[in-house]
Every structure is written in C-alpha cells, then in structure tokens.
C-alpha cells in the first residue's frame, strides 16, 4: 500500500447515485422501517468530522475516539476514494488524535498502520477537497489525475482546477493523467479573477480548435487556447459593454433552475403538521424518511456553499 496505489491511468467514471434509501425510494424506506440504515464510519465523507485542534493533551474524549475510528476507517478506504483518506489524514493530524496510540510522531503512525509516506500523506491532504468537489459532480477521479491539476490550483485555485477536469470529462471523453497533463500544459496565461465558466471556455478552445481558429488558417490547439484566453482578456477589459452571456444557454444554470423547481415543489408538499401526523401514525417509517430528507438537504447545502462573487 504505497504511493503507487493510484499510478494506474484509468478514466474517471460517473458516480451513480441512488434515489432514496438504498436507491429504492419510499417503498424501500417503508420495507426497512424496522431497520436503521447507517453508513459505516469512514466510508462516506460526511462521516468524517472536519479537521479541528485537539480537545486537550490527555486521553481522547469520547467524541475524539469516535472521530479517530472514523478517520482510521477512512484511510483504510484509501484504495476506493483518496479524498476520504485525505480528509481523514488531515483530521487526525490537525486534532492530534493519534496522541494516545503509542506512536507520537504522525509520519511514523501512518507509515506503521498503512505504509503511507509523509510526502504521499501531504499530497492526499492537499488534494481531498478537489476530489470531493469532483465526486459531487458525479466523477470518480484518480489521485494521480488530480495531481496533474496542481499547477492550476497554485495559479488559479481549486475551482479552476475542478473546471478543467469537469470540462475534459464532458467534452474530451476519456479522462487520464496524460490527457489532463496535456491540457494543463497548453493552458495559456489566464487573467486573474476569472470565473470557472471562463476557464471552461479556455479548455474548450484547447479541446475543440475549430471553435477558435488560429491565425493563418492553421489548426493548432495551443494557439486556440491562447486565442480563447485573449478573448477572455478583451471581454474583462471592455468597459460599458451591454453584451453579456445568455445564462439560459448554460447547462449548469439550467441544472440549477431545475433543481430549484424540485426543491420548491418539495417545500410545498411538506409541512410541519403533516410531518407530525406521519410520525404519530408510523413513527419508524416516518423518521427514516425525515432523516433521509435531512441528509439530502445537507448535501444540497454543501453543494451550494461555494465562493460567491463580491457584491
């Protein structure tokens, strides 16, 4: 279990998501009304608390013990989802949760338990947020693939890196480490402060040279990327222009609008008296549904908790 765990260069694949409990919706909830379904600790990102300083210098508190177990399970899950392992490692290190393990040095602790080198652990801890963001979009990236996005993260931030991967996955088909490396290598100097949507345009210019024809009639993807970036620069410097991109042409904006419509319909369908009556009549089944609703709302809240433009 070393740093070569993610060296295989396979494409990221869409992550399938079930509907309702165990992917079977309300009938499944009712059928399993007598059974409380809970994901094993460390197998989902939500089951791992955020990194926080230790509660003290002595023995672990009960909460810290539970967090420690979840984090260890998350690192055990390393071969399935590196972002879960990365968050687990950062939470353990930040909270000094290994202090009662008999191995005070964190680098020694993770090597003894999982044969993860200190440098590999640092990479995982720096990459898990991008992995989480891509997983929320339905992709299942490899750690070696996210590693190729490091230059983009350093120059333009995590949102831009996510936009590069997402665009390649949508427009370019097969996502590999080499494909990401090639795109990142061709990325031109992009004006600071550009939005992820603008980064998408630049990447599309690299993947689809015909969208930005190069001077002299040649069809060069590197020149296309520069032409796309130049277009962004000109647009950002233009003053008083009334022409703005039509938001209705954006697939992601349409997705947000559709999601809002569904959430609005759900808000109309659910009210406090109905919930109380349901719990009174069928407490076990109703509470499972309520918990599922709470989990889903939490996912929506995390999905929209992004950096907002300055007002």
Explain what you see:
- With 311 residues, the chain is an all-alpha fold.
- It has three domains: 1-135, no CATH class; 148-236, no CATH class; 251-304.
- Helix content is 58%, strand content 0%.
- It contains 14 helices and no strands.
- It has helices at 25-31, 62-76, 82-95, 106-114, 118-136, 143-147, 150-156, 158-171, 177-186, 196-207, 221-237, 251-269, 272-281, 283-304.
- Helix 1 (25-31) crosses helix 14 (283-304) and helix 10 (196-207) packs antiparallel against helix 11.
- The radius of gyration is 23 Å and the shape is flat.
- It starts with 24 loop residues before the first helix and ends in a 7-residue tail after the last helix.
- The model is unreliable at 1-37, 210-224 and 231-242 (pLDDT under 50).
Question: How is this structure best summarized?
Answer:
This protein has helices spanning 25-31, 62-76, 82-95, 106-114, 118-136, 143-147, 150-156, 158-171, 177-186, 196-207, 221-237, 251-269, 272-281, 283-304. It folds into three domains: 1-135, no CATH class; 148-236, no CATH class; 251-304.
């Amino acid at each position: 279990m070393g740093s070569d765990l993610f060296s295989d260069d396979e494409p990221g694949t869409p992550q399938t998501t079930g509907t309702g409990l165990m992917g079977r919706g309300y009938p499944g909830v009712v059928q399993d009304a007598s059974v409380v379904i809970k994901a094993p600790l460390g197998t989902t990102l939500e089951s791992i608390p955020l990194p926080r300083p230790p509660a003290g210098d002595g023995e672990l508190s009960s909460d810290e013990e539970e967090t420690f177990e979840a984090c260890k399970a998350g690192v055990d899950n390393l071969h399935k989802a590196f972002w879960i392992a990365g968050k687990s490692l950062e939470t353990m290190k930040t909270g000094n949760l290994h202090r009662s393990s008999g191995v005070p040095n964190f680098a020694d602790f993770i090597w003894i338990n999982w044969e993860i080198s200190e440098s590999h652990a640092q990479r995982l801890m720096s990459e898990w947020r991008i992995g989480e963001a891509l997983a929320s979009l339905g992709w299942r990236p490899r750690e070696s693939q996210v590693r190729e996005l490091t230059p983009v993260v350093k120059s333009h931030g995590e949102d831009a890196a996510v936009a590069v991967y997402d665009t390649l996955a949508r427009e370019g088909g097969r996502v590999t480490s080499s494909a990401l490396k090639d795109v990142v290598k061709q990325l031109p100097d992009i004006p600071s402060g550009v939005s992820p949507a603008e980064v998408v345009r630049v990447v599309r210019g690299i993947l689809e040279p015909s969208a930005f024809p190069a001077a002299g009639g040649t069809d060069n993807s590197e020149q296309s990327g520069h032409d796309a970036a130049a277009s962004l620069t000109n647009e950002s410097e233009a003053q008083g222009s009334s022409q703005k991109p039509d938001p209705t042409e954006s697939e992601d904006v349409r997705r947000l609008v559709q999601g809002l419509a569904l959430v609005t319909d759900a808000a109309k369908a659910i009210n406090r008296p109905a919930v109380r009556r349901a719990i009174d009549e069928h407490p076990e089944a109703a509470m499972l549904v309520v918990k599922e609703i709470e989990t889903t709302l939490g996912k929506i809240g995390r999905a929209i908790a992004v950096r907002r433009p300055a007002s």
